[in-house]
Each structure stands twice: as structure tokens, then as C-alpha cells.
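User: Before I run my own analysis I want an independent prediction to cross-check against. Here's the chain; please return only the C-alpha cells and, at the end, one sentence I can use as a sanity check.
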Amino acid sequence: MLLKKVVGTSLKSVNLMNQVRYQFAHKLVENIENDKQEVSLDSENCILVNENDVSIGQTSKRDCHKLDDQQNIKLHRAFSVFLFNRQGEMLMQKRSSHKITFPNCYTNACCSHPLYDLENEREELNAVGIKRAAQRRLNFELGIPSSQVRPENFHYLTRIHYLDRGDGIYGEHEIDYILFLQKDVDIKPNPGEVSEICWIKRDQMEEQISTLDGPLTPWFRLIYQSGQLGLWWKNLHRLKKFEDYNTIHKLN
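Assistant: C-alpha cells:
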């Protein structure tokens, strides 16, 4: 009996120590991811634009997304990638809880910004700079090898202009380039950016999206509710007919 009691106490102690170690490791990872977010907010510069998408300067990612005293957000250039596999299913990701804007929200495969700091991402002809930025971020967020998502693999469709004030501290005000990509790729999500992924079938889109256990990001919701997503999705085999380099669609 004494031996059993000692062993039981030891096992409890071991379990408690393991639990403490797990909590410490989890907190350490969380702190590291938060630090990474803070560093990128101040060290990476977005491209400021006017309502015609003409570049007018640069400022930090933090400054681009922070509401000022009048609740305004600087307008900047961004992109949204919609990724489809060969079966025509669309990838959606749930944004990590570490994200500064719209954490724990579901959205399209990748949403980010070309950086002013990278000269090749400022190139505007045929949206090639945007496509290079998309290649970089797909690798960073979803672990997709850059060799599998080359700039020429993307289909540029159009641009949207939208504003969402988020949590009242950080929000989005973007001219957002819409990129489609249909290809089977290797995916290894970065947990600091993406907490989960799922594949959506076109004929079950409404049902599957309605059952997601979290809200949609404002840009994805606007594109989805506009009806354009379904239209483009039906025409993956002939996307070139939808290319529009002249129009900026204002959605709200």
C-alpha cells in the first residue's frame, strides 16, 4: 500500500510538471509570435496610394492600419489570393489569434501587402509586383514552396476599394488586388499566421461557409456577397476574360 501511494504521488507530480512545461512552452511560442507581429508592424513599409491607386509614398504597416483621432485609416495597396486545387476546391484559412487585424476570422488563402521596401514588389506593369508579393506571402503564411507559385501562375482579375475600422484601434483601408491561382501545391501552414485551413466545394459554398466556427474577414465577406466570387469560380478555365486593369470597384 505504501509503495502504491508513493508511486501515485510521483505520477501526479510528473503529470503536473509536464502540464507546467506545456503551458510554459505554449506561452513561449505565443510570446515569440506576438514579438514577430510587432517587429513586422514597425519594420515593414506598405505602399500608400490615392483613390486611383497611384503611389503617393510609404509608411509602416502599423501606421497603415491604425485609426487616427478622426477614425481614419491610410489607404494602401494590398492583395487577396484565392487558391484552388485541381479538383476546383477553394482553400480558406482561419487567421491566427496573433494577427493584429481580424484575428480568428476566416478568409481566402492569403491576404497581405506588397512592400515598398522591396523594389521588385513596386513594379506596376501587369501587376507583376503584386504577384511577387503574393509568391512571398504564400510561402511565409502557408509554407508553399516559391517554386510552386511563380508570378506567371497567378491570374490578376481586378481591384476593390474597401474600408473597415475593425476593433476601433486597427482596421483596413485598402485597394485590394484580386489574384486567382489554380494549382496543386504543398502546404505547411505557419501557426503564427494561420490556425487552420479547409477546402470549400463550389456547389456547397454557401452551406460550408455558413457553418464555419468564426466570422469572415470584411474583404472576403464583401467579395463573397457581391456574387463575383461565384462567377469567377465557375470560370476558372477562362479567367482571362475577367481581367480588368482599369476599374477599381468600391465595396462597402
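Sanity check: The first helix runs from residue 2 to 43.
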